[in-house]
Amino acid sequence: MTRYLFNSVIITILTIFINLIITVSAAYAFSKKKFRLKGALFNFNQMALMFVATAVAVPRYIVIVNTGLINNWLAHILPLIAMPVALFLVKQFVDQIPDALIEAAVMDGAKDFTIIQKVIIPLVRPALATTVVLTFNAVWQATEASNNFITNDTMRTLAFYLNSLSTNNTIAATGMTAAASVILFLPNLVIFIIMQSKVMNTMTHSGIK
User: Fold this and answer.
1) pLDDT tens digit sequence for 22-56
2) Model's pTM, two decimal places?
3) What is the residue-wise DSSP string for 19-79?
4) Domain map (residue ranges) of the chain
């Protein structure tokens, strides 16, 4: 069980880190940059909100197989590094940052990376906190990669291990399922309690009523 827990922790940390970088960079580009197909690409992101994971399970499997990621750590990480809802929320915050602030940073010689690091991130921390909560919840409880893309038992996650316990023994299935649910839920609860104020702030300012 220790190995499964270690795998879950490492995969979750890496996925959250990469997701934050992609989300805040994309939100900055969609909000403050001008480029061709900007509207079409953001509308594509909005359309992605309509699809649940089950709807893209087959295309995702084909991509993983064709890219040779079977029994690879990236099979856990790549499918979850981009979250359309997180991009939408962070973009709402970036939209509220005055263009004059960005222009002042440019006049001072700041490049895009510096602007994101010194200006954007400090001002959108509530949205980034929400992104952390959403990403953690998705990654911590994910079993798709362990079920479909991983055959090496040492590369599987805690969620897969706990779910397998609840199905292997039919007599104790109910108790096992309850215990597994509690173990998987507690970290989500702790993360949410820690970031509750920032998450509520995000809901207030994102335009969601």
Assistant:
1) 999 999 999 998 888 888 999 998 888 888 878 88
2) 0.84
3) HHHHHHHHHHHHHH---TTHHHHHHHHHHHTT--GGGGHHHHHHHHHHTT-TT-THHHHGG
4) 2-205
